[in-house]
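Quarterly update from the structural biology core.
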Amino acid sequence: MSRSISKNLKRIPGGVNAARGYLSAAAACGIKRTGPLRFDLCLVVSEVPATAVGVFTTNLVKAAPVILSRRHLEDGKARAVVLNSGNANACTGTPGIRAAEQMTNAVAVALGIDADEVLVCSTGRIGVQLPLPKIFPGIVMAADSLKASPAASMASAKSIMTSDSVPKQSAYEVSVGRKSFRIGGMAKGAGMISPNMATMLCVITTDAGVPSSYLRKILGEVTSKTFNCITVDGDCSTNDTVLTLANGVSKIAIRTAAEKKAFAEALHAVCADLARAIVADGEGTSRVIELTVKGAKSEADAHRVGRAIANSQLVKCAWAGSDPNWGRILDAAGYAGAFLDPDKVEIAYDGVAAAKKGMGCQDAKGEARLRKIAAKKEFSVLVDLHLGKGEARLLTTDLTEDYVRLNLSEFSL
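Predicted structure, tokenized:
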């Protein structure tokens, strides 16, 4: 997922408010059951009608906000997103759907817009009904304090945190001729992170004008290369959502091939930043590993092998102990369900070979060098299958005993 940034792409401060024509605000409603009162709800609002698309969890158990937001996106338009943490509104049946609808209705009344222009996201504890008497005043409070400031953006990013230790934002300005457009976003996620989306929420805003058909297409493509290529613990959530709003306030319409290329690069930059931030903040992790699988018979096979390795508990435990255990990596590749000739596989850490032709290739001095690499906070692993041109890149982590402690209870929700 490493990339070079185009000279037309400039990193700027902020998140959802970086793009022009957007406001946000956070409120502390008391949804989170433990700890001091803190931000747990926010609104992100476009001042004008916007094109909107979304990508959602592949889990067959879908939370109420996912179901409702998909329905509201059928016309490809939206004006606002309401997000809450501390309660996922998942596995809550018909009452959960009604609660999500009531949230969008409350936002619509507060902003003077239609309810179907409002999207909703929730994250937190599963199987508990939303405390609507706490949420309604928070919606009003947020609607009355909407701002375009960086501070409002940061407060919104903090409001969607659950077990996250830091807020996650990214923004860029893109030059197109003599004009420019901006794109920014915020995300949350630290646990239940696995390819095919994760327990993550993400809202991206841009002031470019983007047709819904192209926005839908490019968001799907970028998501597949960023958020769907990260894993912490192999769990796929009920609530994961990536929403993108494009309001056209910059007066730049994305139509030509050059404009589409510039927009795609900017969207990828924001999503890649947020994806890496999610992995780096993984629950009970101490290392970030960029895993590349190349030489597979197909791209699909490369992803199968990559996911098997990235989700292997044995591999993760080895990494947690600074052990460059190539045998566990080869073992995971072997059960991935992909074409594999173990006698052709090469494995390397930060470019230093650990195994060639399916066997270890280092002496004691080389093994010591590999252990030093595996002790770093960030390193790369290359697995070359030597069977074809298929390639995949994923971001993954180790897992430490802190992961167990963090997930013994949902204390942070």
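The first strand starts at residue 9 and ends at 11.
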